[in-house]
Amino acid sequence: MLLEEVPVAVDSFNHDGGVLFFCSHAHEDHLKGLNKKWRKGPLFASAITRQLLLLKWPSLEITALELGRTYQIPLMDGLEIEVYLIDANHVPGSVMFLFSGYFGSVLYTGDFRLHEKHQDIASLAPVRDLVGPFLQVNFGSFSKTGDKGLSRIYLDNTFCDPRFQQPSREDVAAAISKRFRRKWPCIIFVESYRLGKETLLLHLAQKLRSRVLVSEERKKTMRACGFESDQVQIQSCDPLQASEDLLQTEALRGCIWAISRQNLRKGMWQASDSGCAFHGIRATGWAEQARKEESMPSCEDLDENLVAVSDDGVFHYLYSDHCSFLELVQFLQFLPKAPVTFISPVGSSEGTYSFDGADGIQKLMASASVPSIRYSERPTRCFEKTSLPRAKRKAEGPHEEDGYEQKKSAGA
DNA sequence: GCGATCAGCT
DNA sequence: CACAGCTGATCGC
């Protein structure tokens, strides 16, 4: 997104209007426009994110920024911008950016999960001191109170609806290790993306006194994230390449095996064909849908954090790398009041499991006293099947991306 | 031909 | 649906 206050682009790299570029973390959907030949401007990221990007594109030029200190970076025409990185507690390397300068102070959260340390953001110098005078000149609504603080918050609104009440990742990890202690030893397949859930894998391995098995690529990723330790052995091993013999050995010994979503079922079938003891774990923020779709476990087998067990034996847990709705409210309450821009487009309430974006916006404004929320609307899904080739559809013209803003006064 | 991008899917 | 990808088709250098 290109910030409106200053020509800075975060997590999107196609903007010719961008002067400085920042990457909040190395998930694929935050790297749009990046490629090995990308050279639109200076690129900044945390040291870990930089390492992860270099694994993908070794020739990229990226400046690593440390967390917890202020950097002055030249912008244009003698102007500079200050930036301060904050741990976003989302995936390894993920950060929030606090930008400040002639435009005031702007917080870009990126994807994040609330952490105690986020309370300190309000006492950081750019929020506490720097912005006041600028706000009095440039921002009418703030000059009345003379508030110091933030001129805007770009917020991770992934789960901005009261129905999202995911427990802490620590609680869920503890519940998982407790449950699987009784099933030990076995192969535990843990579905995971290319980046994320490392803490869960290591927690399980530690609690079960076992090892983590990952793909070769993921082992490099974990090394770049600094996850090598003497405590837990991380072994590279592809479950789909494993021989029957190896699967049986691993099952008898017990192991935590990271596996991609599209390979989870295949891996489980192979283990099953080899006569192994195994289980699958799906730990996602969207587990609520599983509760509706899958049969629930028998009552005596229930624990609070197990969401559902599907027919084929996959255990679904509600494990989220994004804030719950309550955490979003708490986060905003830690900060000075400021207008909010949602980072992700908002959808409507159509569809069985999608939540009502408008409702979430109203609830957030009411609960956290947000003066206004700006957001773009997710294009409504076109259910009409079109058999036209892409070139022809393209010729019919692009549709506008509409922007919206809801003000507090307009609400209930 | 190949890498980048997009549509479609889960 | 889609947390964040993957696959296969197509674009374009």
Automatic annotation (TrEMBL):
SUPFAM superfamilies: Metallo-hydrolase/oxidoreductase (SSF56281). The keyword DNA damage applies. Keywords: DNA damage, DNA recombination, DNA repair, Endonuclease, Exonuclease, Hydrolase, Nuclease, Nucleus. It holds the Pfam family DRMBL. Residues 394-412 have a biased composition (Basic and acidic residues). It is found in: Nucleus. Its main location: nucleus. Residues 259-338 form the DNA repair metallo-beta-lactamase domain. InterPro entries: DRMBL (IPR011084), RibonucZ/Hydroxyglut_hydro (IPR036866). Residues 384-412 are annotated as: Disordered. Belongs to the DNA repair metallo-beta-lactamase (DRMBL) family. This is Protein artemis. It comes from Durusdinium trenchii.
